[in-house]
Write a structure and sequence with these properties.
The protein has 220 residues and is an alpha+beta fold. 24% of the residues lie in helices and 23% in strands. The strands form three sheets. A four-stranded antiparallel β-sheet has the order 1-5-9-10. The protein has a four-stranded antiparallel β-sheet with strand order 4-8-6-7. Strands 2-3 form a two-stranded antiparallel sheet. A hairpin with a 5-residue loop joins strand 2 and strand 3.
Length: 220
């Protein structure tokens, strides 16, 4: 009597490079926007601080307070403070770049959390005082929509350990994703140089975190 043969399982595809590997490892990534920002993001897309303020002198110093402005479309916009960089004494950590140069690098890009734990820490810092709109992006769609503009970091770019005076933040902190040779699970920050115009097709969920610590799902 012939024995039954167990059907072979199809071979699991191996990611061909860091872009595909990141999309497979991190199905979603998170952008923490200011409280109430989702309507403007849905209509206008995500804009960098540089795109919003141009050559405004306020971008050449660490922002100790939020910057509030209103766009021509009538949407109020809030650009978050950078007090955490002052607390971390960021200037003591820079290597090959001065503070103005480092701020220029940061202000020209959008930031996305690659891991839930860093987002949770960020929520703990801002939710009770300001609230947040957290936009959850489909990673594969975001990467496909921003070819050649994605750079990643395996360390927190704006919050090094304050008492560790290493020259450990530089232009090399951000590595083009296409050239990334490490383990994509170590990536903490995903950044996009420049803005993202058409956001809605890339988003799977939006949650508003109210200052009273309640949450509201805006997009599911």
């Amino acid at each position: 009597m012939a024995s039954k043969r167990t059907p072979a399982r199809p071979a699991e595809s191996v990611p061909s490079g860091p872009i595909e590997a990141l999309a497979k490892t991190r199905k979603v990534v998170f952008h923490a926007a200011p409280y109430g920002a989702w309507p403007s993001i849905a209509e206008l897309g995500l804009l960098t601080a540089k795109e919003l303020l141009g050559d405004d002198a306020r971008l050449r110093a660490i922002r100790s307070d939020r910057i509030e402005l209103e766009l021509d479309a009538g949407h109020p916009i809030s650009i978050r403070d950078q007090r955490h960089m002052a607390r971390a004494n960021i200037e003591a950590h820079l290597d090959g770049v001065d503070l103005a140069g480092w701020l220029s690098i940061l202000n020209a890009r959008l930031f996305f959390f690659a891991r839930q734990k860093e987002l949770t820490s960020f929520l703990g810092r801002y939710q009770a005082t300001e609230g947040l709109d957290v936009v959850v992006f489909d990673t594969a769609r975001l990467l496909a929509a921003t070819p050649g503009r994605v750079e990643v970091a395996t360390v927190p770019s704006t919050a090094p350990v304050a008492w560790d005076r290493c020259p450990c933040r530089s232009r090399a902190t951000f590595e083009p994703l296409a050239q990334f040779s490490g383990d994509v699970s170590d990536i903490q920050e995903i950044t996009v140089v420049g803005g993202v115009a058409d956001v809605v097709p890339l988003v799977g969920r939006v949650v508003r975190y109210h200052p009273d610590r309640t949450t509201e799902v805006l997009v599911a």
